[in-house]
Amino acid sequence: LWRFGYSARLLKTNHFRTAASNTSFPAVWMVLAQYSGRIPGLSVVVKKNSFSTMPETVEDKANLELYSPHPEVRGMTVLNREAFKRTVVVPVLKVKKEIVNILLKSLKHMVLQRPGLKRVVEDPEDEDSRLVILDPHKIPEFSLAESEREVLKQLNVCPEVSKYNLELTYENFKSEEILRAVLPEGQEVTSGFSRVGHIAHLNLRDHQLPYRHLIGQVIIDKNPGVTCVVNKTNIIDSTYRNFQMEVLAGESKLVTKVKENNIAYELDFSKVYWNPRLSTEHGRIVELLKPGDVLFDVFAGIGPFAIPAAKKKCHVFANDLNPESYNWLLHNCRLNKVDNKIKAFNMDGRDFLLGPVREELSKELPLLKEEQKTSFHIVMNLPALAIEFLGVFRHLLVGEPCSTAGLPTVHCYGFSKHDNPTKDIQERAEASLGTSLDGRCSTYLVRNVAPNKEMLCISFQIPADVLYKRPCPGEGKEQA
């Protein structure tokens, strides 16, 4: 009888005793007895006026089970996929196989959607029919609403909803559901990650570490193309912007390929800095550039600002202190056929500004005429320290500006935990420059890095009185 959605316990209910007084009961009982055990998976829902339905509490529990693996997986640290199996009761419609596709389109909002789950299964008692699995959350008390009944009537489909014992497996649960079932109740579940090519990069909390290898394997299982999962084991090193990491699951291959804004890059994720969340910001800055502009990329990494700028026919000077980043920058310049358009350097940021940047500006700015539209941009993407480098611009050049329009524009990145991060980033930039930027700068919120920690970009033209050191009167005569 359980196959029909009933149990011996239900036969003792008042509902049954009431139904037993109905003269049609013996006939119903004979039908149930005749088919009991002969229709695996399928059960008949008898109309309420002739028999009791399954209590709502049981249905509610079944609905919850659609999104919850077997409770015995709680505390699992080594992944056992078989342990996630469970059977739930779901509503189905019996439909002639010729009109299954039409029905799916007509009632698509009612059909059960689970990962890896077939929406249509064989009818065990009729090879010419199929069973369409419906979402029990959309079918209260396993009964269709009038609007759905009307659709079925037009398709000449019987609106009778049956119950089906559906087996859910590991493949049918989402990664969040699996991890929520495994980790201790009430603790934060991590299912988000940064994807770098075939690598998934996690930042696990301390309470998640005992489950880290299981978490890694789940990420691989549920994300096609991910074959390696790593966890950051310390904070980013401020010098080279890389960090120690542990491979949690999959292959220990950390050289990967990525594509950002239609440009391909290759890198060793264990040795260089790459953050896929900065794709929009890289594109935003490059969008500001025009062909013929000059870009100085002080902390260039593997080239996400420099290479697209070079492809846009800008003149690019790119620098990074990390020898690995410098080598991958050269590699990616060759990969994208812009190696003859980018001058690359492996220097400290200050030395780069005081050397190649000052030399180029000293040579080009005096030649700039008012009608020329060449712009100079300096990108400083080292949020932990870049603002401290702004002091280098004080009197970087000697003389008088030929054109205030040609003064370089700086795009400097920084982190802020201040209540007013925009004000904070401007005040810190002003302190480094030794001048006010009121009315002369714009601040852009790049992203939220952590709770109460923002990454911002402040952009401004370097004021002439900051950039230039005017010769003292008579200084030239004394030299003569």
TrEMBL record:
BP term (GO), one: mitochondrial tRNA methylation
Protein name: tRNA (Guanine(37)-N1)-methyltransferase
MF terms (GO), sorted A to Z: tRNA (guanine(37)-N1)-methyltransferase activity
Family of the protein in this entry: Belongs to the class I-like SAM-binding methyltransferase superfamily. TRM5/TYW2 family.
Domain SAM-dependent methyltransferase TRM5/TYW2-type: 193-464
Reactions mediated catalytically: guanosine(37) in tRNA + S-adenosyl-L-methionine = N(1)-methylguanosine(37) in tRNA + S-adenosyl-L-homocysteine + H(+)
Record keywords: Cytoplasm, Methyltransferase, Mitochondrion, Nucleus, S-adenosyl-L-methionine, Transferase, tRNA processing
SUPFAM superfamilies hit by this protein: S-adenosyl-L-methionine-dependent methyltransferases
Domain of life: Eukaryota
Gene Ontology cellular-component annotations: mitochondrial matrix
PANTHER family given in the database record: TRNA (GUANINE(37)-N1)-METHYLTRANSFERASE (PTHR23245:SF36), TRNA METHYLTRANSFERASE (PTHR23245)
UniProt keyword Mitochondrion present: yes
Cited function: Involved in mitochondrial tRNA methylation. Specifically methylates the N1 position of guanosine-37 in various tRNAs. Methylation is not dependent on the nature of the nucleoside 5' of the target nucleoside. This is the first step in the biosynthesis of wybutosine (yW), a modified base adjacent to the anticodon of tRNAs and required for accurate decoding.
InterPro entries: MeTrfase_TRM5/TYW2, SAM-dependent_MTases_sf, TRM5-TYW2-like_MTfase, TRM5/TYW2-like_N, tRNA_Gua_MeTrfase_euk
